[in-house]
Amino acid sequence: MRSLLALLLWLLTTALLAVSIPALWTQHHVVSVDGYSDLAAGAARNPALQQPMAAELTEQVVNATGASGVQATLIGAAANSYTGSSVFPGQFAAVNRVAHRWLFTNDAQGRWEVDLSPMLADNSIRQTLDGFGVQAPTSLQVPVTENESGGLRPGQLRPVAVWGPWASVGAAVLTVVFALLTLTASRRRGKMIAALGVSGLLVGAAGWAGIEIGRGYVDDALSRTTGNIHAIADVMVDHAVASMHMWLNLTLTVGGGLVIIGVIVSLLSGLGRSRTEEVPATRKR
């Protein structure tokens, strides 16, 4: 009966771990505005994102100011210089804060757009525009989705922002509690520690497989974005996937470590029992 209880608790612990790892990652890197901004800043250091961002800035400024020919070429060069600078990741993160607010709060209205005009305050772009006597636009709204709604609406994910922290922390706490209960219910602690390590290995491997499956759905969602925005979003998704892989690799590492610890504990326990059995036998002789 005790073994059956331990098995049931182990299964529940494994299921909770499978929920808590993605929940914690999502809360930390997507739902949290600070975490999402950090994720965006990290992606902005990738040249694969900097190039389409420079192209988007150039296109928007040229369209807004009517620049052409040499002017457009120099504006493009200035935009490339700006996106390759150390200032760009922080400002890109600030722009993404606005995009995040549109989805996760009730403060925004209308179409999902981001304002790129703060980026025009950079010296490399400002000096180029001033050199041609071109006035930088005070607002540079760029639509994120191709159509009016893109299947999304302002504040659509606000419930996630409200309940996400509670759900992720709750899942993590329950995972720890059930892991301790599993160890308590087990007669052989070493084997159960190894079994909990196997849980980590299973969850880590399943996570890798789940990411590969889920990437298709993400690509479908990205089809709602347009042009350079699509390329930028694609790089951000790749950066997010790399972050998820890091979390899963850590889960696999911890799981493997627990398996090793469990085996060692089992061996030591076995040696201890053997010596305990040998002592009475020696005394009888």
TrEMBL record:
Domain of life, source organism? Bacteria
Q: Does the keyword Transmembrane helix apply?
A: yes
Identify the keywords attached in UniProt to this record, alphabetized.
Membrane, Transmembrane, Transmembrane helix
Query: What sections of the protein cross the membrane?
Result: 163-185, 192-211, 246-268
Its recorded name reads Uncharacterized protein
